[in-house]
């Protein structure tokens, strides 16, 4: 299968250089997802320009923030973003997807099978999985506010090291809300990446890392002692 010229043009327009074998896998993902979208309402990003400029941009910003060997859960995977592109971009990590709507989880399973990716799909609420499984990082986009995530994960911080949340410009308001509700008192929130979204000049995407202050301190101590630990700070 050759690279779709419109996909190649969108990558060039957004100044993204991706090795051809990886680009072909990403193309296969987008096409499989769009096919299922006709019945399942998985995405409104149905052009190569939106797929590259929004979806892929977020995934390419997220990818380098994850360490080799990490076990990553995409919570609220929906159309598979960011989890599936992440699994394509990073063969050195283990990706699982959680999607609470059974039909969408079924669609994710179909896409995973078509791409032959070693990714587990759970038709479940992501936070409930933390009763039985452990992940080093939960990644998520467009699922809930910072406050919502703090509440979901609050009883489960022994089952996850950190959250990496992809957010748009409203993240500052969300942080204010979470602070106001006292939900960040024992947590450290850091902005690890910010990048233009291209909608307007001011429109910015960010990747926020949330972890317990206790865990952040532990990682700092490990770094000072020359032990890389399991997740970066
Ligand atoms: C707006 S979609 C976002 C899909 C994708 N992450 C993206 O960025 O395009 C949100 C998805 O999260 C799912 N969802 C919401 N809360 C969830 C939870 N606690 N656990 C698992 N899935 C959840 C919804 O069913 C929906 O499919």
Automatic annotation (TrEMBL):
Keyword Cytoplasm appears in the UniProt entry: yes
InterPro entries, sorted: rRNA_ssu_MeTfrase_G (IPR003682), SAM-dependent_MTases_sf (IPR029063)
Coarse class of the protein's main subcellular location: cytoplasm
GO molecular function list: rRNA (guanine-N7-)-methyltransferase activity
Taxonomic superkingdom: Bacteria
Enzyme Commission number(s): 2.1.1.-
Residues that hold S-adenosyl-L-methionine according to the record: 76, 126-127, 141
Family named by the database record: Belongs to the methyltransferase superfamily. RNA methyltransferase RsmG family.
Protein name: Ribosomal RNA small subunit methyltransferase G
